[in-house]
Structure formats: structure tokens, C-alpha cells
Amino acid sequence: MGNTTARLLDLTRLVSRAGRPFTGIDRVEYAYLSRLLTEGTLWGLVRTQLGYLLLDHGGCVALKTLLDCGAFPAPGLLSRLRGRDAQRAGAEVALRRIAAARCLPSGLTRMLRRLPEASCYINVGHSRFDADAMRHLRVALLLHDTIPLDFPQFTREGITQRFRTFLDQSAQAADVVICNSAQTQADLVRHVAAPPPNAVAHLGVDTLTPMVAPSGPWQNAPYFVVLGTVEPRKNHAFLLELWQRDLAQTGAHLLICGARGWGNREVFSRLDAGVDRVHERPDLTDGAIAALMRGSAGLLFPSLAEGYGLPPMEAAALGVPVLANDLAVLREVMNDVPVYAAVSDRALWVRETTRLARDWQGGQGSTVARFSPPTWDKHFKSVLTLI
User: Fold this and answer.
1) Which of 42, 78, 168, 238 yields a CA-CA distance of 20 to 30 A from 371?
2) Pairing mode, if any, of strands 41-47 and 52-55?
3) Got the DSSP string for 218-241?
4) Which residues does UniProt assign to the signal peptide (predicted)?
């Protein structure tokens, strides 16, 4: 695919997340937008409630500017009456004004004929796509994980079947599937009888720049950070149990940095009732989170399943100790940098968090092996030969 003259990046996910803090997959789509703007001709495709928008290179630049500044226009009356997400609707209003073309779903094939021959359609957000309309394009997809199939109990209603459809469609339509890890590649082969050509390219890890850490009752005391959406797969329930039964008396605090997600009513109820020395901070910037992590006794990562696992990599890159569930993908990318403890071994978690808290109190900090995370340059050096 290296001779592709133009690329069409699906930007549906980024537009759908307009005005919200980026999650892991959002960051990847943004990284692709930023890099591909510097690599020849880039077009963008956005699926909206009304149909599709096609952005030329200048439109993609404008979208990146909108995402960077977060200044989206007010949505129209129709969007407000339909109760649509105001930020997403506002982003679509802005993009309709600058779109090179727009169409109803039935007109997508005709609209995409505007692209140069041999263009490559790139989907890195697991966004639903019209395979029939893409038949005259090369198709490259990035697979983040197969968690909806392997752990359906951790997904929202309807997601498992939707993902199964996406994966089957990908297997039939894709010229290449980029896997974010060898673990994900193995999962692809396990779930698809005849997988398309595929390759592993570890995702880049953005270096977080610490800014000003927010203050609170955790100051002058050891504290730990858990980073990620509060959903069942991230296993916050395990940490709340540790703090309620074992760790509060050590004087250590737990800072939950992440928005509340779904399917976690019991955890939300416990948080609403209050857990001693546990604090929610869902609205922090990357710089504030980085500052909190750098001053912490460690990052805790009891997640039950990951396709990649960015928070431990971001923390380790800052020199912060990491205590994590023993996941194959973390060992693949991070080797022995974290301290691994299976979440089935509660006593080990208590012992290790207590040790990290004491190290912090003693002013020693814990010795962290040097970790140089994967870079986007290395990722794109591999990927650009495929797309």
C-alpha cells in the first residue's frame, strides 16, 4: 500500500467525542489525524446522524484546530429538539460549513468517487463503516482489542453484537489490519477463521508534561492514583474493597482520575456514600494528572482486561512506580518495569501498596526501572508502509 496517493481517515469517533476528555482510542485517532496531515494528501470522513461529510485536507486541518481549542458553535434548533449531544452537534454544524461534500447514506459511493484512485480508507476508531461504498478503495483498519467478545460482561448492551459485526466486516473488507500488540494479533487470529493480512505496531505513548497538581486532603500523605473510566473492567471495586478493609489505616489516599462510565452501580453507590481517604477527580487535565502521578506513591492498575494499557506506560515514563494486574499485554510492552500482582492475590496487593506507601513516607520513593515507551515515530515508520 506504500504507493497510495491519498488517504481517507475516518474521523467519526473524534467528532462524536467533541468537547470531552479523550480516552485511549480517541488519542490514537487524534495521533493519526496529526501525523497524516504531514504525510501527503489527507481527506476525512465523518458519519453524522444525517449522512456523511467529506473533508478535504484543509477541512482536516480545521477540525484539528477545533478539537485543540474546543470552541464549537451552538447546535441548530433541530439538533436541540432531538436532544442530541450539544458538543457533537456543534462540531457537526462547523464541519458542514467547511465540508468538501456531503451526502445521505445512499450517496456515499458516489461521493467517494471524488477521491484520487488508489486512495486508502483508514479506520482506527472501531467506527462502523460501509464496506460496499469502500470497494474501490484500499481499506486499512486498526484493531485495539477483542474485549467485547472475550469479556461481554464488561460491555454495554448491544456492544458485543455490534463489535462482532465490525470484526466480521473487517475480515472481509480489510486489505490490512494493524494490531496494537501481539496479544491483539493473537486474538484476531483466534476470532477470525481467515484473517486478512495483519501486522503489529505498538501504539505511541505521549509524554505527559506535569503542570500544577490539584490540592486536597492527600497532600503531605502518601497517595495512589488510578487512571481510567470508572467501569467494571477497570476493577475499581477491588481497590475500594482494599481501602475499606485494609489500607485506610495506613494513612494512604486513593485518587480516582476518570469519569464515571456504565454498569457500575454498586461502585457508584459506594463512592456516593463515601469511602475513607478515597477521592474522585474526574475533570483533570493531562498536565494535572501527570503532576499528581509524579508526586504519588504509585499508579495502581487492577484492570481485568486490556488491549494495550496506556496508564501504566504513561506513569512509568514519568518514573512513577506501577502496581498492575498480571496482564500479558503489559509484559509484552513493559517487560518487568511494573510490579505485577494478580488481583486474585489480595494479600500481595495489600503488601505491595503498603510497601510503596512506606517508601514514599520515608522519602526514598521506589526504584523504578528505566522505561522508554513506544513512540509514534516508530509506530508510523511501520504503518506508513502499509497504508
Assistant:
1) 238
2) antiparallel
3) TTTS-EEEEES-BSGGGTHHHHHH
4) none
| Domain 6-204+377-383 and domain 223-361 have a common topology | yes
For the domain made up of 6-204+377-383, give the CATH fold. Rossmann fold (3.40.50)
CB of 196 within 8 A of CB of 203?
no
Mean pLDDT for all residues in the chain: 91
Contact 291, 53 (CB under 8 A): no
Indicate the domain borders of the chain.
Answer: 6-204+377-383, 223-361
Res. 3 pLDDT band, cuts 50 70 90? very low
What are the pLDDT digits (tens) for 299-341?
999 999 999 999 999 999 999 999 999 999 999 999 999 999 9
Give me the sheet containing 41-47, strands edge to edge. Answer: 101-103, 52-55, 41-47, 6-10, 120-123, 138-143, 176-179, 198-200
- Which set of grid coordinates corresponds to residue 246? 485494609
Residues 52-66, mean pLDDT to the nearest whole number: 95
Average pLDDT on 208-229 reads: 93
Total-model pTM: 0.89
CATH class (in words) of the domain with range 223-361:
alpha beta
